[in-house]
Amino acid sequence: MSEQPFSLRTTALKVYSPSLLYGLGLGAVTPVIALSALDRGATLATAALVVTLVGVGSLISNIPAAMLTTKIGERLSMVIAAGWAALGMVLGIIPSNLGVFALGVTMLGMAGGVFNLARQSYLAEAVPLEFRARAMSTLGGVMRIGVFVGPFASTVAMNWLGIAGAYWVGMGAMAIALVVCLWIPDLQSRAAVEEGQSRAGGSMWSIAKDQWRILLGVGLGIICISAVRSTRQIVLPLWGENLGLDAATISLVYGVSGAIDMLIFYPAGKVMDKRGRAWVAVPCMAVMATSLFLLPLTHSVPTMMAVAMLMGFGNGIGSGIVMTLGADYSPVSGRPKFLGLWRLMSDTGAMAGPVLLSLLVAVATLGTGVWAISGISLLGAGLFGYFIPRTNRRRIGDP
Prior knowledge:
It is a multi-pass membrane protein. By secondary structure, this protein is mainly α. The protein has two domains: about 10-185, Growth Hormone, Chain: A; about 200-399, MFS general substrate transporter like domains (Growth Hormone, Chain: A, Up-down Bundle), CATH 1.20.1250. About 80% of the residues lie in helices and about 0% in strands. It has helices spanning about 10-30, 35-40, 45-70, 75-95, 100-125, 130-160, 165-185, 190-195, 205-210, 210-215, 220-240, 245-265, 265-275, 280-295, 300-315, 320-330, 335-365, 365-385. It is globular and about 55 Å long.
């Protein structure tokens, strides 16, 4: 561990600024991906499928991202990811057919898989244990801020350049992020690795076998929280439409929920550092379960707004929890590969949540689907409450 005093402000210049830019670039184009697909001849169903390619790209890139980060390091991996995302944005700018555009969307997801894993691994090694949760929560909060600001920036650009303006904003943000990543220093620990200490930590399969108790314990909780979070973004608009609300009102409710989510990340990280991870992980899932249970019982704008605010609070206090737990349980030797497995579980949950909701809505009702997701959130709370205090964490204090 470095003897120099650690400063989150210094870390902000190194890691948070490219993360803010990356989030801004992604947020700029996310609202218009479906519209861009429709402009290229897609049907409504096909356009919805194209939007999911961001998640698919991230899911399929987790293992390659782990191998790449192990081989070339976190900084260069972030540089490559930002460049790859910028190229994906180019495919959104140029006139093209639907297939080429879909490839560009998939590239954004692939770049996100590499970038997110590399920045998490960087912080896990660069930040002392006593600051880890605050650093990870701030990282999650900064990304949220970027995603929140992105649509406003793209709206300004689209007034001048049409729908392509969103992709110009995205490409510019990714290009600047690339430059910033070139400027940040390599981790000091890599010097020790180059002197003969192994950083690879064996194969992905051997790491999975060694860490199977963690992956089947806390890891299942990660699948639950990821499923709930991804579904949360869908159920609010769907329930608002079910109540007959107009688009502007639904957007307002969603925006207020997102604002609360965005504003409370640092206190949550401080609680995790001072009191322990379970003090945030369990309440996060319990509050989310409560809000999801209450949502189908709302029948007016005020009641839905109250539940949406509660949902935003529950999700916000869990900002950074997935990354923090991944860093906690990752071995120093083979850390990027373990985090690759960790992100694979997270992305699997994120993909499975909306699929489960869709199936339940098809065979039952929207309310039934929302209550089922509430049950998954309760399951996650139970898994976190049971496994986090009891899982072997001896290596958390390792340098």
